Known about the structure:
With about 325 residues, this protein is mostly helical. It is built from 14 helices and no strands. The chain is about 75% helix and about 0% strand.
Amino acid sequence: MTENHARISPALVETIAGLSAGTASTLAVHPLDVIKTRLQIHRSISRTPASGLTIFRSLTKQPQPLKSLYRGLTPNLTGNASSWALFFYFKNIFESSLRSFHNQRSDSNYVSLTPLDYFLASGSAGIMITISTNPIWVLKTRMLSSDRGAKGAYQSMWHGARHIWQYEGIRGFYRGVGVSLLGNSHGAVQFAVYEPLKNFWRNHISHQILRGDRENSQVRLGNTATLLISSSAKIIAGTATYPYQVVRSRLQTYDAEERFGRGIRGVVGKVWREEGWKGFYRGLGTNVVRVLPATWVTFLVYENVRFYLPRWWGGEEEE
């Protein structure tokens, strides 16, 4: 096998790593996503305030508890797997473009990207993914927010898609897209923290432990470091941007205008009047429990596939 045949492009590595990570994390934590979605659309003025535990109990008391816990898996799996794959693909392209731009303006052959560069690359990739996958997230939110036997509930992803197209048209698939675009700040902040921390750690390993025997890109991050760095980045980004998730969920659910108000301004105003600032953080506890395991699975799978795939393929990845 020749060297040309042995190599695999960095963009393809990122795509496969992202696809693997999105699939694994969705399968692992989907039940928690169901609970979080229902908490986000539950209004505190109800006589029987819901908690994550009460929702979990109600799901497990259904005739088919496993199906209830994994309701809406198809759109969630489709959305997450494709989103992560495309996100890392476009993120790699934008980062390469920024790196080339900086290299042209510098005497150095290689210029490290700054946190702002990672913010811009991740944010730009996120915008492209949001526009292309929002219809999937509308279907996911509606399926997760109701039981299969509930009145008006979608029986499948395709049933939901036909219903939206028939009664709401193309606009129905893009409910909440405005607030979702704002939500790209979450991923942008997350990777603006994650990538510099990862580079710092790999530089430390390369120079302090390996005595500079390997380039930064050839140093494996390690599972423990991946857990710590990804957790830190996720908590910072999640706390800063969680309110948009609540607003987005309420915009995308059934009868959104009647229940929660019209448009972003209407939903925000109604949440503030009826629930106060706590309404914007409804479900945050469950979300933290959900996102950290999902983050661990996502980044452990992503970093390991990203590191080992070029070696399994028979070549070395270039950055």
